[in-house]
């Protein structure tokens, strides 16, 4: 990292502050978003079925935002909880879903014990991490997953180009080539189970990528 590059800690907290500032609006925008995304729901259902089949512990929704995804994972039969670095998001999640557990914390330094979780969902939660820092997030996801546990990554795909920054509506984010992100996950100790690429719908700018991985 060069002297002028922000630290992972600084980047994460700047991202959390950006989400604090738009928390209520963001929660309203994403509340029913999956109702119109059948392919995304299918990926989540496949992840849930894989975790249930493995029978290996609770599932962390890492970067849970206002908790809508955590609630969906619960509805899919999983013992789900959420973690987010934004206090405003955690407050919204707890108020909207008082029956679920939500923790304030950084997803690259989780309180979960080694091998404690049966699944991890990172639904657009590492898109704001600097590209050189993503490997550390994947290493943390592997640490908390039991052997054979599953990881689901959702991200903006770069459509044949390299990793590239773009002007996400909240704060700077990055688009990844699906092969590059899959390779990085492999190096971190994950084997690919499957992938889904979805072309942008009306009102969306970029292709969406989804990787279902299994911890070695």
TrEMBL record:
Q: Fetch the Gene3D superfamilies from UniProt.
A: Vaccinia Virus protein VP39
Annotated Methyltransferase domain ranges read: 61-149
* Protein name stated in the entry: Class I SAM-dependent methyltransferase
Which PANTHER family does the protein's record reference?
METHYLTRANSFERASE
The yes or no answer to whether the keyword Glycoprotein is present is no
Q: Name one GO molecular function term.
A: methyltransferase activity
Which UniProt keywords are listed? Answer: Methyltransferase, Transferase
Species of origin reads: Streptomyces triculaminicus
Q: Name one Pfam family in it.
A: Methyltransf_25
Organism superkingdom: Bacteria
Q: Which GO terms describe its biological process?
A: methylation
């Amino acid at each position: 990292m060069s002297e002028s590059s922000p630290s992972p800690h600084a980047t994460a907290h700047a991202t959390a502050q950006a989400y604090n500032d738009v928390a209520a609006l963001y929660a309203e925008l994403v509340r029913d978003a999956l109702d119109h995304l059948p392919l995304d729901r299918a990926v989540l259902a496949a992840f849930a079925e894989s975790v249930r089949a493995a029978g290996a512990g609770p599932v962390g929704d890492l970067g849970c935002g206002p908790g809508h995804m955590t609630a969906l994972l619960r509805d899919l039969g999983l013992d789900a909880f959420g973690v987010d670095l934004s206090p405003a998001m955690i407050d919204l999640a707890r108020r909207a879903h008082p029956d679920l557990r939500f923790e304030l914390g950084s997803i690259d330094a989780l309180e979960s014990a080694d091998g404690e979780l049966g699944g991890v969902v990172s639904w657009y939660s590492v898109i704001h991490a600097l590209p050189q820092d993503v490997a550390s997030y994947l290493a943390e996801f592997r640490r908390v997953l039991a052997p054979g546990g599953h990881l689901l990554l959702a991200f903006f795909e770069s459509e044949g180009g390299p990793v590239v920054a773009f002007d996400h509506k909240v704060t700077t984010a990055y688009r990844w080539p699906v092969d590059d992100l899959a390779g990085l996950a492999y190096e971190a100790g994950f084997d690919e189970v499957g992938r889904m690429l979805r072309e942008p719908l009306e009102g969306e700018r970029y292709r969406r990528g989804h990787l279902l991985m299994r911890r070695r």
